[in-house]
Design brief:
The protein is an alpha+beta fold. The protein is built from 8 helices and 7 strands. The protein is flat, with a radius of gyration of 23 Å.
Length: about 240
């Protein structure tokens, strides 16, 4: 799927959400919100109508959905809900507080759409799961969510990094490429370091400061599988020198 197709699909979904939450909305309002032309909005509305969405155009007012029309909420089976609840307990022990925050907000939204019977069982299960105290809560970083966004948006990050070897501090511009997790250092980000002109691994707990830049980079041609295979030929993963 092309990038333009993904953007349009995202916009169509957002327009449908807006139509469900507002009594009426104009094409000009939608055009401004999504930074597109009014003509593009006309085409989007037509595409939604062709997909079976009952949109009513009120002359000189705007668009509204037919009374009573709603997209049915996503339904989770009991086993799916149980899996999410189980993962929630593990996430709470994660070393990055931003991941805990984002997952908690997401799981709360999911819990809101569960059937009452499933919701009651999920709540019971959450009280019957414990994670070993050998894995204490140790929130040593708060940047995972920000780096994830930069990775998927292909945006350069400026970081102040404290070296593992000698505690020296350096300022780097990096292109986030992938993440690696191990029990010793927890989260690491694999990134192309513009200072070293090569791929490096950075421990999130050693990043002292992080700033997203309005600089885009081309998607990396290297795959994570290729990167790990190259490293495994020279080092065992936990012993990879960290920049």
């Amino acid at each position: 799927m092309e990038d333009n197709d993904i953007k349009r699909l995202s916009r169509l979904t957002a327009i449908l959400t807006i139509l469900q939450t507002k009594r009426i909305v104009t094409s000009l309002t939608l055009a401004k919100k999504f930074d597109v032309s009014v003509r593009t909005i006309y085409r989007d509305i037509k595409a939604l109508e062709q997909a079976g969405v009952p949109i009513i155009a009120e002359e000189r007012k705007g668009y509204t959905l037919m009374e009573g029309y709603r997209i049915p909420p996503v339904m989770f089976t009991e086993s799916e809900a149980n899996a999410l609840i189980t993962v929630e307990q593990l996430v709470q022990k994660n070393s990055d507080s931003s991941l805990i925050k984002e997952y908690t907000e997401a799981i709360n939204k999911i819990k809101a759409v569960l059937l009452y019977s499933t919701k009651n069982k999920a709540e019971l299960l959450s009280k019957r799961i414990a994670v070993s105290p050998v894995m204490p809560n140790r929130n040593t970083s708060n940047s995972l969510a920000l780096i994830q966004n930069a990775l998927t948006d292909f945006k350069v990050l400026k970081i102040t990094y404290q070296s593992v070897q000698n505690n020296d501090k350096t300022i780097r511009n990096i292109e986030p490429f992938a993440f690696y997790y191990n029990l010793q250092e927890s989260w690491l980000v694999v990134a192309f370091c513009l200072l070293r002109n090569d791929y490096r691994m950075f421990r999130l707990d050693r990043i002292l400061k992080i700033e997203p830049l309005e600089i885009s980079f081309e998607p990396h041609k290297l795959t994570l599988k290729d990167f790990l295979e190259i490293k495994e030929k020279n080092f065992s993963i936990p012993d990879i020198p960290l920049s």
